[in-house]
Amino acid sequence: MDNLNLEELSAEQVNFMLILHSGNARSKIIQALREYKEGRVTEADHLLIEADEDLKVAHQIHFKMVQQEASGAKVEFALLLMHAEDHLMSTLSMKELVKELLDLFKQKKL
């Protein structure tokens, strides 16, 4: 993903990449909570690691977008971009909350 050149993609493609990777992470985070609830702690931990990998890709895309704008390239604002940003930020919040919950459950042996 380091060699990703966003200039070769349309704004819509970049936005959909953000949605894709943050959406994949969100699904894995929710599934991790469900796995833990069913007593499959190892699977839950593994899903959170996978979610982090998806979020790393989303962060790389987002960082490249910020770099482009900082270098003077105009970033076109659109509802799709706003949706992609919202998706990423809410997934990051969800990840932190679920990790804290699972740590608490583990401490309390729940």
How are the SSEs placed, and which strands pair?
Blueprint: H1 11-37, H2 41-70, H3 79-107
Helix pairs in contact: 1-2, 1-3, 2-3
Active site: 83
Pfam families: PTS_IIA
Keywords: Magnesium, Metal-binding, Phosphotransferase system, Sugar transport, Transferase, Transport
Major beta sheet summary: none
The helix tally amounts to: 3
Share of β-strand residues: under 5%
The run of helices and strands is: HHH
Determine the structural class based on helices, strands and strand pairing: mainly alpha
- Number of distinct beta strands: 0
| CA distance, first residue to last residue | 38 Å
Global morphology = elongated
Pfam families: PTS_IIA
GO molecular function: metal ion binding; transferase activity
Active site: 83 (tele-phosphohistidine intermediate)
Binding site for Mg(2+): 86
